[in-house]
Write a sequence for this structure.
């Protein structure tokens, strides 16, 4: 009778030895030989009349190995199913008995496998934790800036005769030259488009009133500042930090002057931005826009709070892993085999992801967080309605139910929606477990926090 023996061989790592006897695999091996002899097509023999000895000689070793391994696999997974050890991934084979397998001398075999065990761990005490809820106040200036951006985005490009507005778009030719405007042989030469407001205030004054075909000589570092200087250096093919390049002289020839004529704040514009809302006045438009902007920054604040919760759980949950097993699994468990060196490089990120998976799974299971079929359907319906509302598809939605039925049969769609919803439920739960204190921040400060932490 086959047996499975389990022994510890390291931190959270056990060895399973599966013993398979001749009596278990040999009858099925002989049965397979007979089946092959009945179905094999071999020149010189009628189908079904091939001698078993010839089949054994031709196919015997591979059939023999296959039946032995089938018996091993059957016993291994029966053991795992009965004992239910909490393991990572699949067992990995250790020393192999392949070299001892002999069709002419069938006997009992031992096959060894390594399993990595999931750690037992405790979550931090949420009630003792306090996090910061970074809040953005939506000001009238922010709304004015957003409206101006919308007016420019939907505006019409005009071609004024002279430069008279910081919003002018200048199509220019940059030519590297000396202080006296003499072109340098082999120097840089490039056409570019630049907003007037990108220049320093002093240069903006100098450019005001200039027309097409006018020119001016300047030094880069006296004409652009900060990130605008870095941008111009990069556009001209220099390193952003090249101080020598920044002091070079260039001749600027004005090829074309442009200005975007802003859209008027009227009903036509309001309905383009918010179709179907029936907005007729600028005050109504500003109120709805302010509400939208506030909701956006509230969601960004919440995302940043979620980032704090993520780090709280990762940093304060003590957990050990069967590192050697997991690194071996990384080498063989993916679509393409990896070297030991590649697995070593990937392991820190992989182990962090694994730690988060174990933590989040524990919270979801312990607190019975769930997503029902009705939840999936409702969320999908909301997404579809939002999408088609933007496309202004009309009021006839009789097709919606059958469309949702098809979506719910798409495994990838269902899985992606489930993951999104269960993650929302997880963070909703966590938010209610910790104390938070509000802190006013600017949009730039909040955006910088998010750029530093993407998970």
């Amino acid at each position: 009778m086959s047996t499975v023996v389990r022994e510890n061989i390291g931190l959270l790592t056990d060895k399973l030895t599966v013993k398979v006897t001749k009596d278990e695999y040999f009858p099925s091996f002989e049965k397979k030989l007979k089946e092959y002899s009945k179905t094999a097509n071999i020149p010189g023999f009628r189908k079904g009349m091939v001698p078993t000895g010839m089949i054994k000689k031709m196919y015997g070793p591979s059939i023999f190995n296959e039946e032995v391994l089938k018996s091993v696999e059957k016993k291994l997974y029966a053991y795992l199913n009965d004992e239910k050890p909490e393991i990572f991934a699949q067992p990995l084979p250790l020393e192999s008995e392949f070299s001892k397998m002999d069709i002419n001398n069938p006997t009992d075999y031992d096959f060894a496998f390594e399993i990595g065990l999931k750690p037992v761990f405790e979550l931090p005490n949420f009630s003792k934790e306090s996090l910061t809820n970074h809040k953005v106040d939506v000001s009238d200036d922010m709304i004015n800036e957003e409206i101006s951006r919308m007016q420019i985005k939907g505006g019409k490009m005009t071609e004024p005769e002279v430069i008279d507005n910081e919003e002018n778009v200048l199509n220019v030719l940059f030519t590297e030259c000396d202080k006296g405007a003499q072109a340098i042989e082999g120097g840089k030469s490039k056409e570019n488009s630049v907003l007037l407001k990108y220049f320093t205030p002093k240069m903006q004054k100098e450019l005001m009133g200039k027309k097409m075909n006018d020119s001016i000589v300047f030094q880069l570092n006296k004409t652009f500042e900060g990130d605008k200087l870095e941008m111009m250096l990069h556009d001209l093919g220099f390193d952003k930090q090249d101080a020598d390049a920044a002091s070079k002289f260039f001749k600027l020839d004005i090829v074309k002057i442009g200005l975007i004529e802003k859209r008027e704040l009227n009903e036509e514009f309001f309905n383009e931005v918010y179709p179907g809302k029936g907005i007729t006045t600028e005050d109504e438009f500003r109120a709805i826009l302010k509400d939208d902007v506030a909701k956006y920054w509230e969601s960004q604040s919440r995302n940043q709070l979620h980032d704090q919760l993520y780090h709280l759980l990762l940093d304060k949950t003590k957990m050990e892993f069967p590192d050697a097993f997991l690194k071996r699994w990384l080498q063989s468990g993916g679509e393409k085999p990896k070297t030991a060196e590649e697995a070593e490089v990937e392991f820190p990120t992989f182990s962090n992801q694994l730690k988060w998976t174990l933590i989040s799974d524990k919270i979801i299971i312990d607190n019975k967080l769930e997503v029902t079929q009705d939840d999936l359907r409702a969320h999908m319906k909301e997404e579809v309605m939002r999408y088609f509302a933007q496309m202004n598809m009309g009021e006839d939605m009789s097709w919606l139910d059958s469309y949702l039925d098809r979506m719910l049969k798409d495994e990838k769609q269902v899985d992606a929606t489930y993951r999104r919803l269960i993650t929302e439920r997880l963070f909703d739960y966590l938010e209610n477990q910790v104390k938070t204190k509000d802190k006013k921040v600017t949009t730039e400060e909040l955006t910088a926090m998010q750029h530093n932490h993407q998970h």
